[in-house]
UniProtKB/TrEMBL annotation:
Leader peptide range in chain numbering: none
Domain of life: Bacteria
Source organism of the structure: Limnofasciculus baicalensis BBK-W-15
Keywords: Membrane, Transmembrane, Transmembrane helix
The keyword Transmembrane is annotated on this UniProt entry: yes
Upper lineage: Bacteria, Bacillati, Cyanobacteriota, Cyanophyceae, Coleofasciculales
Protein name: HTTM domain-containing protein
Transmembrane regions: 5-23, 38-57, 69-87, 126-144, 149-170, 176-195, 222-241, 281-302, 314-339, 393-411
Keyword Transmembrane helix: yes
Length: 539
């Protein structure tokens, strides 16, 4: 069938599905949104018209090797292994009171499963689940039973991340790699750099040539790029949508940076406080490069030069966020590696070291790594999707589907875990006044100091229960009750292992306000405006 006719048919079917959605909403399910359904299908049809074009593939997608896709799998799964074992502490969440839980999207469905509540409140069971999740992700990294462990690893991490987030808020660290894993689940990512590949070679089965490029791996790699690139674009556009094109206003930027430093969610470096007297142009520069840099990441989908430069820029951006806002986006820093072709790098190193002859035939077996077979066998071993004309549009349509979903989620500003529109730091405040809270611990010895709650219970990352703690200083009885419950839990957990004299007798929550424009040199960084002393519960 003519490719143009197929493309037209896809667009027509998309339009018909949109009209069918409207009829469904009017006749069968009035609770559905006719506008949303029509918008999504028209969006999908428009993107599919572009991605199914042969010219689009030649100009922007290109071919890739099994090794390139395998490297993306390794990078993504390695990130999630470290997130699971290093940055998240799932078992500790069982110590937190259920009164501080927040609604967390899809997690509500899991709590309807009998026994899930008791599972979520058991430290030992959560510890086992954390280890199992890390093991599955590790197996995905090395590529053993890849077709099973990649989607299973993504599913397990969604549960793990949801349990932790429900005690804090819907933070975004660790989600983008999960999205990439969902994409990898639909691709032949085990064809390169995997135990599955080596096992097939050992059993005498044919496998694709590891360093021979083809369209199927090019589209698979491009689908992963789409997830990461559109995530950055969504984050940048959210700032424009909520705060306008001048979100980078120096007053707003200074407020964001200083408030993140004085009420930190991870580190306590206070580097930004040393910049209080810095000129406004510095903060404007940080804002402009941050917001428009995120939007510019979309160029990696269309330019090889952008794929060489912008990932490095994003690493620098995240390092700046780490030092100036005390927030570590470990996953996004490492994930930039997927934009680089490791097959080209490896081949370049071989040529540089003189270990590979230019005239070596590609169909000659590679006895060093036992991976390559002759060209005829490799073509026979390729997935069916690359051989049948009736299936060659699978990957362009997959790319269009994921792109349409991400654009639709951003347009509708959907926040339903694990789905997010990435509205990070998109607010605007040019009052040049910032508010922040402190938790003050009073010890038996009489010693009084500021304390960060994650030093006692470190379940989630990128947060220190700030939403719950702020409830103590708001005129909201439910918020005060939740905050008091958390403070008593922290006190009880700390005192179980504290030596005499080091036990905490009470916590005090303080609300501070700093006018950094009129009092930039204030050594106290503002003044105390409100204080709350916890009500100690009987143990």
């Amino acid at each position: 069938m003519n490719i143009r006719l197929i493309r037209i048919s896809i667009c027509c079917v998309s339009a018909l599905l949109g009209l069918f959605w409207i009829v469904l909403e009017r006749v069968v399910a009035p609770n559905l949104s006719a506008q949303d359904g029509l918008l999504f299908f028209l969006l999908f049809g428009s993107i599919a018209w572009v991605t199914t074009s042969p010219a689009f593939f030649r100009r922007y997608v290109g071919e890739a090797t099994p090794e390139s896709l395998g490297a993306i799998r390794i990078i993504t799964c390695a990130i999630q292994v470290l997130m699971t074992l290093w940055l998240e502490d799932l078992p500790s969440s069982a110590l937190l009171p259920i009164e501080i839980r927040h609604s967390m999207g899809a997690m509500s469905y899991f709590y309807n499963i009998p026994g899930f509540e008791s599972f979520a409140r058991s430290q030992s069971e959560l510890q086992i689940f954390e280890w199992i999740t890390a093991l599955i992700l590790f197996l995905g990294m090395i590529g053993w039973k890849t077709r099973i462990v990649i989607p299973l690893g993504a599913f397990c991490y969604i549960i793990l991340g949801g349990i932790v987030r429900q005690y804090t808020w819907f933070y975004h660290t660790g989600l983008i790699p999960v999205y990439v894993m969902v994409v990898l689940s639909l691709t032949p990512c085990a064809d390169g750099l995997s135990v599955d590949r080596l096992w097939n070679v050992y059993r005498g089965k044919t496998v694709p040539v590891s360093d021979e490029a083809s369209a199927i791996y090019g589209w698979s790699r491009y689908a992963c790029w789409v997830i990461v690139a559109l995530s950055y674009v969504a984050a940048g556009l959210s700032k424009i949508y909520k705060s306008g094109f001048f979100w980078w206003d120096p007053a707003n930027m200074k407020g964001i940076i200083l408030s993140s430093t004085l009420d930190p969610v991870q580190a306590n470096w206070e580097v930004a406080l040393k910049l209080i007297h810095a000129p406004d142009i510095l903060f404007a520069f940080l804002g402009i490069t941050g917001m428009y840099g995120e939007i510019a990441v979309g160029l990696v989908l269309f330019s090889k030069i952008a794929r060489q430069i912008l990932p490095i820029c994003m690493v620098m951006l995240h390092l700046g966020i780490l030092f100036l806002q005390d927030i570590l986006f470990f996953d996004l820093i490492v994930l930039q590696l997927i934009f680089y072709d490791f097959t080209e790098i490896r081949q370049g190193i071989k040529r540089w070291r003189g270990r590979e002859s230019i005239n070596v035939r590609k169909n000659e077996p590679n006895n060093n790594d036992l991976k390559d077979v002759n060209d005829r066998q490799a073509r026979e071993a390729l997935p069916t999707a690359t051989k049948g004309e009736n299936k060659k549009l699978y990957y362009p349509i997959m790319v269009a589907t994921f792109a349409a979903i991400m654009i639709f989620v951003w347009f509708r500003h959907i926040e339903f875990y694990p789905i997010t529109s990435l509205q990070m730091f998109s607010g605007y405040n040019n009052s040049q006044k910032i508010g922040y809270t402190k938790i003050i611990a009073h010890y038996e010895s009489g010693f009084v100091t500021r304390l960060y709650p994650d030093t006692i219970i470190h379940a989630p990352m990128n947060t220190r229960y700030r939403l719950t703690i702020r409830g103590c200083i708001l005129d909201n009885p439910k918020g005060v009750q939740s905050c008091n419950k958390l403070l008593n839990t922290l006190r009880r957990v700390h005192n179980k292992t504290a030596i005499p004299g080091q036990k905490i007798t009470k916590f005090e929550v303080q609300s501070w306000l700093w006018d950094f424009n009129n009092n930039p040199s204030d050594p106290d960084y503002g003044e105390l405006v409100k204080s709350y002393t916890m009500q100690v519960e009987e143990e």
